[in-house]
Amino acid sequence: MEFKNSYLQGVYDTVQRRNQGEPEFLQAVKEVLESFEPVLEKRPELEETGIIDRIVEPERFITFRVSWVDDAGKVRVNRGYRVQFNSAIGPYKGGLRLHPSVNASVIKFLGFEQVFKNSLTGLPMGGGKGGSDFDPKGKSDGEVMRFCQSFMTELYRHIGPDTDVPAGDIGVGAREIGYLFGQYKRLTNSFTGVLTGKGLTYGGSLARTEATGFGLLYFTQEMLKEMKGDSLTGKTVVISGSGNVAIYACQKAAELGAKVVAMSDSGGYIYDEKGIDLAVVKEIKEGRRGRIKEYLEKVPTASYTEGCKGIWGVKCDIALPCATQNELDGEAADKLIANGVIAVAEGANMPSTPEAVQKFQKAGVLFGPAKAANAGGVATSGLEMSQNSMRYSWTFQEVDRKLHDIMVGIFHNAYNASKKFGDAGNLVMGANVAGFLKVADAMKWQGIAY
Ligand code: NDP
Q1: Same fold, 60-191 and 211-368
Q2: Mean pLDDT across the stretch 392-417?
Q3: Of the candidates 177, 92, 120, 166, the residue with the CA atom closest to the CA atom of residue 418
Q4: Atom of ligand 1 at shortest range from CA of 370
Q5: N or C: fewer beta carbons within 10 Å in the chain?
Q6: Which mutation among 115, 129, 169 tests ligand 1's pocket best, with the greatest number of atoms within 8 A of CB?
Q7: Would you say 102 and 132 are in contact if contact means Cβ atoms under 8 Å apart?
Q8: Whose Cα sits closest to atom 15 in ligand 1?
Q9: Whole-number Å distance between alpha carbons of 84 and 21
Q10: pLDDT exceeds 90 at position 272
């Protein structure tokens, strides 16, 4: 038995039976269901209305063939996915990931997490996710464009500004969103806010690029203040990854007075005792899609170590995993704890294994789970949708201020729920429960037809 509550055990048994061979999805469902044990004691009607049986099953799951022609004239075939997980509180919303590791399990875990994350933002967005096992690395702009056009040639039937609004994720940035949007517009002859993360010249929101990384630091700042009476000033920070989330987390950490000493990519990590020179990282990663080890060409006093996992052995006060799922395991958690880490906040989705999370919680390390700590990206996508609907644009400062307030609100929402349901400071449980209750209420009022 994995659960004390027999109803939850039954739900999880069914999920296991229906989703065999999908470890990431089962991991995400298990973590969320565990948080519901104290809720079910206080809210038995959640069992009677079958809310939990329903919430673990996607409303719709679409897979499709994506064929395209490479620069050598060879036909290539990838698999495309979109999961429309839950639309109880708004249109499906969630990013598209292009990475060879993408499969049904990864897409469903991300879509499931997205339901609770979007709810926590307080904005009216349901949960979805999509992507493909296409690897943009090493592909020409023309190849990426042809892939995106083929992908959208199927996806456009399933999405729309009031139905499902995709965005970026790993491997999907401004370039890919542009190609996807162009093809959607051509196929539907309509210019609508059907995607977020758009370029600023055609409906994008200021501060969307920065939002996930900035939001992660606003959350961390509030968590330190409220739970430890502390701040980011003078803290040493380690950030894994060097993509969109990691870069803007690094920028905001430095702006708030911390020093980031290490960053990574899937090849290895750099360590710069003086503090990472972010302009160099941006030039490598945003400027020419290079490798993080090229940092040493500009900053020869820094060091580079092969293998991305070693980054968790770097001594720091605050660790921000911002690369990918399950990148921080129990062994890495042990190293961070031994080195005196005081806070961990997740920029990536599910970057810490369950074992790592348990170790942090047991050691009294403040722990900000992804669905709360990295919700700034989707929250700002929600603000992009609002601006598109109004046909109006807010200034950078206006969006950034709203983002800050949303992140502070998410922290308190999760923290208060953790207190209310008997485990004060357990933000994993608090975020799951706070996100869930709003969706559950909306599902209850809308009846059982879906
Ligand atoms: P990017 O593609 O911009 O960057 C991803 C970074 O993670 C790169 O440095 C990449 O290295 C590294 N990485 C990817 N896969 C692996 C792997 N298997 N092992 C080690 N490193 C890896 O993606 P984002 O920054 O947008 O996304 C990062 C994480 O944040 C993801 O979990 C995503 O779901 C999550 N997230 C993103 C949001 C956003 O707004 N972009 C919003 C909320 C969550 P390399 O270049 O070598 O592959």
Answers
A1: yes
A2: 98
A3: 120
A4: 44
A5: N
A6: 169
A7: yes
A8: 324
A9: 20
A10: yes
